[in-house]
Design brief:
- This protein is α/β, with parallel strands linked by helices.
- The chain has a domain of 111 residues: Vaccinia Virus protein VP39 (Rossmann fold), CATH 3.40.50.
- It has 6 helices and 7 strands, in the order E-H-E-H-E-H-E-H-E-H-E-H-E.
- It has a 7-stranded mixed β-sheet with strand order 3-2-1-4-5-7-6, with helices on both faces.
- The chain starts with 35 loop residues before the first strand and ends with a strand.
- It binds S-adenosylmethionine.
């Protein structure tokens, strides 16, 4: 077994693209070669951190636009020696469209993305018909997307989008361990039903 060197104080798990217009070379960013998983809008990181701890072979990339949240996850991951996490502080749709290599993602988690409830704001939603094209390009063959929302209209829209897109088929939902339940779900699960769906690239 390989011995793991001590973690220096200034270690960061954040990634910085060399170029903002072409896909990143992510293959060299991890020592392990397990499933490649992306958590879009990873928030405060409860799910990402626990999921990384339970799946040390996974290569987990958290993408989040809020700097303070990314910094906090970074510190916690380094402290817990979760070397399988990497972080991108960025707008998720941009990262997916321009920086993800083709067919790179085996599992994509989209947990409680902002629902943009007003009709005139719905174009801001992350998961939309056009985003399905981005998922189709970036997910591997048989790659899976796990989606969860407490906002029923958003969930129903996603279900409609999936039903009319022949590139995807519905698959088993992701069953989370209690310590993996995300920060958002933990706060809201007693107040509202949580809707989940999972779909796989054909
Ligand atoms: C409602 S929270 C859910 C966070 C986490 N997934 C959870 O379940 O606890 C939505 C998160 O997504 C982030 N976010 C929203 N839109 C984003 C975008 N376009 N790109 C990256 N992060 C985004 C927000 O900053 C926030 O942290």
């Amino acid at each position: 077994m390989r011995s793991i060197p001590p973690v220096p104080d200034d270690l960061s798990l954040r990634l910085w693209p060399d170029n903002w217009l072409t896909p990143m070379n992510l293959e060299n960013e991890w020592e392990q070669d397990g499933p490649r998983a992306v958590d879009l809008g990873c928030g405060k990181g409860r799910f990402l951190l626990a999921h990384a701890a339970h799946n040390p072979a996974y290569r987990l990339l958290g993408i989040e636009r809020k700097l303070r949240r990314v910094r906090k996850i970074d510190r916690k991951a380094v402290r817990a020696d979760l070397r399988n996490i990497r972080l991108l502080r960025m707008e998720a749709a941009y990262a997916m469209r321009y920086l993800m290599p083709e067919n790179w993602i085996d599992i994509c988690y989209i947990y409680f993305p902002d629902p943009w409830p007003k009709d005139r704001h719905q174009d801001n939603r992350l998961l939309s018909k056009s985003f399905m094209d981005i998922l189709d390009r970036t997910l591997s063959n048989r790659g899976v997307v796990h989606f969860a929302s407490d906002h029923e209209p958003y969930f129903l829209d996603v279900a409609d989008i999936l039903a009319s897109d022949p590139r995807w088929t519905s698959t088993e939902p992701h069953v989370l361990r209690e310590d993996e339940v995300s920060d958002f779900e933990l706060i809201h699960r007693d107040q509202k039903p949580i809707h989940r769906c999972s779909f796989q690239r054909k």
